[in-house]
Amino acid sequence: MSSDATPSTPLDTALQFDAIDLVGRPGSHRRVERTIPAPPREAGGIAMQVPEGQDIAVEAELESVVEGIYVHGTVTAHLEGECSRCLDPVDQDVSARLDELFMYPEKVRAEEKEDSVLFEDDAVNVGPLVRDALAMEADERPLCREDCPGLCGQCGFRMEDDPDHHHDVIDPRFAALQGLLEDDAETKNEEA
Ligand SMILES: [Zn+2]
Ligand SMILES: [Zn+2]
Predict the structure, then answer these.
(1) Exposure pattern of 173-185 as b/e (b: 16+ CB <10 Å)?
(2) Cα 139 to middle of ligand 1, angstroms
């Protein structure tokens, strides 16, 4: 467990790499590899995430430089989510770059403090890098396929199941609903 000051997520705890052997020895470096099970899905998080328990594989080089410990490598994972049009399952293989300089606190100038990632507790915490890298690569609006026809705007029918699906006559229930919506819009306009 790391310091009490920062509450750590399961990802942070699992992706902490001890680097005390590299401190103050510019030029020395060490390769690290770690595969961890994904933490539970973040509710309200991004659309594509690694399902809980599935592998998140990290490979990185920890390099001692004058200012701190430079970490660069890759994270690979398999993301799952839903098509943003038809809600079918969608998956995505991701290999994302990790790249961060963990600065020795004493090397950070006051005006740079905000933007710097600090080397603390003799370890580099790759968890936040992994989270950011996966989020960067993840499709924001995943599609089961480029031309997914989605759902019928009127009844929610999966267009894929019958491309000829259409509504000739407006369903009376739907017409009633439309009436309600229009009434609602009018009310709002009057209020405004
Ligand atoms: Zn789709
Ligand atoms: Zn329909």
Answers:
(1) eeeeeeeeeeeee
(2) 13
